[in-house]
UniProtKB/TrEMBL annotation:
Keyword Manganese: no
InterPro entries: TPR-like_helical_dom_sf, TTC38
Family named by the database record: Belongs to the TTC38 family.
Species annotation: Hippocampus comes
Keyword terms of this UniProt record: Repeat, TPR repeat
Protein name in UniProt: Tetratricopeptide repeat protein 38
Domain of life: Eukaryota
Amino acid sequence: MDPLSFRDCAAWRAEGLPFSTSSNEACKLYDAILTQYVKWRNIDSIGGIEGCITRIKEADPDFVMGHVMSTGLELLGTATTPRLNQRLASAVKKTVELAGSQNLTPREKLHVKGLELLSHGNLPRASDVWEDILVDHPTDLLALKFAHDSYFYMGAQTQIRDSVARVLPHWKPHTPLSSYLKGLYSFGLLETHFYDQAEKVGMEALALVPDDAWSVHSVAHVYEMTAEVDKGLKFMEAREKDWQVSDMLATHNYWHWALYFIEKGQYEAALQIFDSQVIKHCKTKGSMLDLVDASSLLSRLEMEGVFVKDRYRDLLQVALPHTDDHVTLFNDLHILMVSLGAKETGASKRLLEGLQELAKTPGDNYHHKLAEPIGVPMCQALMEYDEGNYDQTVELLYPLRYSVVQIGGSDAQRDVFNQLLIHAALKSENKRHQRLGRCLLVEREATKPNSPLTDRLMQRAVALHH
């Protein structure tokens, strides 16, 4: 990638997105970071995202949007929180102070406001601010991506789709990075169950940019949700060379590949992906996405009766340092799966108690507000299941099944909780729970026909009645 091709001050101004810096170098580095963020890929020749962040602060230490970008990305990575991380809290404070001492454009001021709200965990208000920016500046890709990620963390499926739909007509084929909007849109269509359209738009994106890993991921979701397992396996294999280069999303795409194998009951193949790809990247990079994927795979395999305790112990070293983070409920539940799977009772207890504590004074934090009604009972359900108290698990999870979406993640990721409820119902001594388990399987079959996993569970349910 040619560093000269990144946009300087004049190029951003020409696009109607002026910045209050006179440093062309800073503007180009902003573009470079944005490009890598959208592609889910660190470009080594320009130093990756970290290298570019270091350089943008050298090019213009007072460039507010450079700070908004770097601090915003760290917050949205969800691997740390200003509540516990003094350096991150200071970075937010510094950005706000810098903004107060400069003559910023209205757009830049809104970005600072959005960052501040994000740092308090106030995802709904932060998203509103980014949407305000997009009304006047529909090609502000940072606002679009920050909103997209925040909606994802809230499970705001319709918003994920509509946020992109609203700005699409303003993007022209020659606008830099325009093809990546198709992948974003495809994902929104998918999460609102427009599977055919999601596949079509995702494939259009890949025709333009074959190594667009987010679009690959969106199409992979379609085959997961429609149980077109063989199609999915073929698709992932045929394109592996293209999406492998995307270091931030490759592990997640391998996760999707492994899900197809679990669906088919080919556990060895799924374990091989876990051992050769997922756990390896988890330990080297330690990103939260990799951690939740690893945890989710082990949990699904364990429910299917595969012995994975050693692998849980292996994963524990990555999960343990995040026990007190409580950035999102989705993360919390996956961290808890690991400590339960590794039989690390102290950590499990500590995670639950920490969440109960935050639930008392949630402030504006979206996830902490949901801790009492949703997060805590879900954590308790996982713990009861682990203890073999299946009746209790059903009693805790069943009333929440239509609220779980609010913890964030995708339909495919949250499916682990649907599976847990079904397994608990079938394992419960309570006859009514067993009947409920059958009802849930009939419902599952209706939305996802031809699923081998559903068929296997159905056979187990039928056996209970004989």
